[in-house]
UniProtKB/TrEMBL annotation:
Alphabetical list of PANTHER family matching this protein: CHAPERONE DNAJ-DOMAIN SUPERFAMILY PROTEIN (PTHR36335)
InterPro entries: DnaJ_domain, J_dom_sf
Matches recorded under PROSITE patterns: DNAJ_2 (PS50076)
Domain called J: residue spans: 93-158
Segments forming a coiled coil: 21-48
Name of the protein: J domain-containing protein
Organism: Rehmannia glutinosa
């Protein structure tokens, strides 16, 4: 009988005691997978955040370079337009020297100057300038300002 007990097969009572241990091991594996997934998600978020910061720095640097370029171009354009402003005796001569057709040139009537003025505003409006060419943008802005300034200056004579 003692030999029978020694060589007896494994009883199912012991297997039922192991069931909570297997369940606990499975729960721990799921928990490890979740932690690993969360860790990977956080690393990916951090990588994307660093990438966005780098993109923003690049954009800011490019914007700063464009602003510096615009300012140097603006100084050159203002110099040229200042010479033009000094040489013009009235709004019609300014418009004519900017390449705007003024009807009845060299002695236009006030209505002809007014229509040429409106045409010049449309031609040199900053929103109509090429967005890709910085020089054209700056020239349009400065010419637009000059035309408006001289319109106010010469408006009593119109």
């Amino acid at each position: 009988m003692v030999l029978q007990l020694l060589f007896a097969p494994y009883t199912p009572d012991v297997a039922q005691d192991d069931f909570p241990i297997a369940e606990e091991a499975q729960r721990l594996r799921r928990l490890r997978r979740r932690r690993k997934a969360e860790s990977l998600r956080l690393l990916d978020m951090e990588r994307r955040q660093k990438q966005r910061i780098e993109e923003m720095r690049t954009i800011q640097k490019k914007d700063e370079e464009n602003m510096n370029l615009k300012e140097t171009i603006r100084a050159d354009v203002r110099k040229e337009l200042k010479k033009l402003e000094v040489s013009c005796r009235n709004l019609a001569s300014l418009l004519h020297s900017l390449g705007i057709h003024v009807g009845g040139w060299p002695n236009p009537m006030p209505q002809e100057v007014q229509t040429a003025y409106k045409r010049a505003l449309l031609t040199f409006h900053p929103d109509r300038a090429s967005q890709s060419d910085i020089r054209q943008q700056v020239e349009a802005e400065e010419k637009f300002k000059l035309i408006n300034r001289l319109k106010e200056k010469f408006s009593p004579s119109l």
